[in-house]
Amino acid sequence: MVRVVELIFTKLYNVSHFARIPAVPHKRSLNTKREYQKDLKDFFLFVAKKEPSRDLVLEFLHLEQRHAVAVVLKYKAHLIKKKLAEATVNRRLSAIKSMVEMGRRLGVCNFSLDDVKGERVETYRDTTGIRATDYAQVIALVDQNTLKGKRDYAILRLLWDNGLRRNEIVNLNVGDFNAKEKTLSILGKGKGSQKEVLDLSDKTALAIAGWIKASKKKRGSDPLFTVLAYHKNGARLTGEAIRRLVDGLCKQAGITKKMSPHRVRHSAITTVLDLNNGNYRATQRFSRHAQVQTVLKYDDNRQRLQKQMSDSISELI
Predict the structure, then answer these.
(1) Is 157 known to be catalytic?
(2) Which candidate in 26, 65, 167, 247 could, as Cys together with 111 as Cys, close a disulfide (CB 3.0–4.6 Å)?
(3) What is the pLDDT of residues 197-213, one digit of tens each?
(4) Catalytic-residue membership of 62
(5) What domains are defined for the chain?
């Protein structure tokens, strides 16, 4: 039983003071584990006035369903009373739920915390981006006569013409491009290992083909976009490198809005909405969002409906 609780500690905390227990791989990042460690410490200090220990964790995991839910709801009320941000409250609840779920999987816990709901978080997303004419100035800064220019031009076209996310570009291999069919196979967000095929514009297909030819890439398994610096020549280009590329060129073009690859994607989606007169379904096909409701946020920002209605109603009095 002690070993089971140690496993829970190891997975949640990624700690080393249980040295004889082998590390357990987990999908959460080290930063998330560190935050969960702080959150669980805060939880146990509140409910038991003690820092978490083997015995204390096991005592909590052995509670009956109604008792456990009551304890966590009391803790949630405490967090809300402290006027913590909704996201902070939800993260602390997630840490507790993660511990309970691990306990259930390891057979030391018989309850769940499904009845403990998180706080609703409403976030504002500025999806307006920049105009096509502004982005045209950005692309015009690229010298397509150089090897780096050919690479950068192809990347910038993919960001705009297909609204690709930077990780989708980073993960591309040479074999994902079909020059004859003018298509590109990508690992889309939330698609796992299943690739989807996108049609490319003539300009984008020519840009990718030009880069592949100039860089003398032949093997289909090679990264499509690579580093050109001498000491890392041939390594897969990173998302951070693409971010710096976009940020630098946009500043050079005199764009005052903070830009990133995702902001270029926002710009492309908003422009598509303009071109098709607010056709949500067509725009969803372009953006590859799972839900059409996500596209509505772009249209709200595009039309500034609230401002229009406020202006209209103000004229009545």
Answers:
(1) no
(2) 65
(3) 999 999 999 999 999 99
(4) no
(5) 2-105 (no CATH), 132-304 (1.10.443.10)
